[in-house]
Structures are given as structure tokens and as C-alpha cells.
Amino acid sequence: MKDKVTVIGVAWAGTETDYRGFVDRHGLSFANIADTEGEVYARYGVPYQPAWVFLGTDGSSRVLRGSQSEESVLAELEAHTAG
Questions:
Q1: Is 46 exposed, middle or buried (CB count within 10 Å of its CB: 0-12, 13-18, 19+)?
Q2: DSSP labels for 2-19?
Q3: Residue 20: in which H helix or E strand, if any?
Q4: Which of 17, 43, 49, 51 is 20 to 30 Å from 65 by CA-CA measure?
Q5: The pLDDT of residue 75 is above 80
Q6: Strand, helix or coil at 41?
Q7: Cis omega (within 30 of 0) on the bond before 47?
Q8: What does the pLDDT read at residue 56?
Q9: What are the residues facing 63 on neighbouring strands?
Q10: What is the mean pLDDT of the chain?
Q11: In sequence order, what are the beta bridge partners of 11?
């Protein structure tokens, strides 16, 4: 699945220093960006963190709001990469 999925963290609230500290504390190895204007969140209808946005190669999107279990995230990834 690793070759079919790109993960990008999008920080909204706080400063760049805040989100970089979060990335460092949690040892996140995937790309992370700051959305200080909330444009990405608005585009996908995400009102708060945490949230997961899954984008299909066909332009489709699905949003899961709130904390998610590993199983629910993996199931969503499987659904998006099947076929």
C-alpha cells in the first residue's frame, strides 16, 4: 500500500513553531504543511482537528472527523487503493 498512498499532515491552528514541535515530538516522518489561512480545511469541509481527508485519484474525497482508530484508517486506505 505504501507505493499507492501519500500522507500529508496539515496543521491549521497555532504557529509554525507549534506544529513543527508537534511533528518532532511525535516523530512524524511524512510531509507536514501549515494551513494558517484555513484554505485546505475549508475546501474539504473540515471544521476542526483531528480529521482525515482521503482523496481519490478520480478527485473524490471522503472526510472522517475526530479521532480514528488504526483499523478505521486502514479500512479507508484499503477502500481507496483497491483495484
A1: buried
A2: GGG---EEEE-SS-HHHH
A3: helix 16-26
A4: 17
A5: yes
A6: helix
A7: no
A8: 84
A9: 53
A10: 89
A11: 34
